[in-house]
Design brief:
119 residues; mainly alpha
Length: 119
């Protein structure tokens, strides 16, 4: 448990700073509201009314989000390998090359199938 203490302390300091910043901003910040500030921010375009259910999003939105998450998680696996690169030796290098090759094959497949086109 002693090896995790600095990580827990750093997490507690980060959480305390975030909470402190939000609370102080609401207490000390200016409170001059007008009609323009209370409207939804839409880049100068008047918002159009949406249906009662909130409207429908195209499936392409969800596919793009899922692809981002999949490739992002695969890249996260590179960090532990990079940290222990010296200890793994040639075996670790070959295994990571196979992993990266698998990621590139998946990327090429998604690209070929048109999963990255936003039309």
């Amino acid at each position: 448990m002693n090896s995790y203490a600095p990580i827990l302390v750093l997490g507690a300091i980060g959480a305390a700073f975030a909470i402190f910043s939000v609370v102080m901003a609401t207490l000390v910040g200016p409170k001059r509201y007008n009609r323009a500030k209370l409207e939804a921010y839409e880049c100068g375009i008047e918002p159009t009314p949406t249906p009662a259910g909130g409207g429908r999003f195209p499936i392409k939105y969800y596919l793009t989000a899922m692809l981002f998450i999949v490739f992002d998680i695969e890249i996260v696996f590179l960090y532990p390998w990079a940290v222990s690169f010296d200890a793994l030796g040639l075996f670790g290098l070959v295994e990571m090359l196979l992993f990266v090759l698998t990621v590139f094959v998946a990327y090429a497949y998604v690209w070929r199938r048109g999963g990255l086109e936003w039309d």
